């Protein structure tokens, strides 16, 4: 199926009371906001209602016409999969959904890259070792 790539996906905490709060991660248990850049319409979906396996997640995005995903968390496997499928991944600067959409539209978000994840991971590992050694 071919769709024009006119949408962005942003994981949110739920589809109800906290649907305007950007979540840190994206996976099978996620709820996402799909924002159409052309019509400016917002739709919320429960990922598990659309795909049975996390490996199908990025393909679902392609089928829906998603050109970019915006998230806070450090998910290197997801980032690699998105890049392989031609979907851009951006860092969210806030947990406010509307502000995140505005920042995307104003080109104020930075694209995630593997170097960012690698540096963050090395820093977290160093901090974990430090905390562990202090706790002994």
Average residue-wise pLDDT: 82
Characterize the main sheet: 5 strands, mixed
| End-to-end gap | 56 Å
- Rounded to the nearest angstrom, the radius of gyration is 16 Å
What share of the residues does DSSP label as strand, in percent? 15-25%
String of helices and strands: EEEHEHEHH
Tally of contiguous helical segments: 4
Overall geometry comes to globular
Write down how many β-strands occur, each being a DSSP E stretch of 2 or more residues.
5
The stretches of 5 or more residues where confidence is low (pLDDT under 50) are: 119-136
Order of strands side by side in the largest beta sheet? Answer: 3-2-1-4-5
Features:
136 residues; alpha/beta; 5-stranded mixed β-sheet; 4 helices; 5 strands; globular; disordered C terminus
Structure described in brief:
The protein is an alpha/beta fold and 136 residues long. 35% of the residues lie in helices and 20% in strands.
Description:
The chain has 4 helices and 5 strands. It has 136 residues and is an alpha/beta fold. It has a 5-stranded mixed sheet, with helices on both faces. The N and C termini lie far apart (56 Å). The relative contact order is 0.16. The C terminus is likely disordered.
Secondary structure blueprint with pairings:
Elements: E1 7-12, E2 31-36, E3 42-46, H1 57-64, E4 66-71, H2 76-84, E5 88-91, H3 97-105, H4 114-135
Parallel strand pairs: 1-4, 4-5
Antiparallel strand pairs: 1-2, 2-3
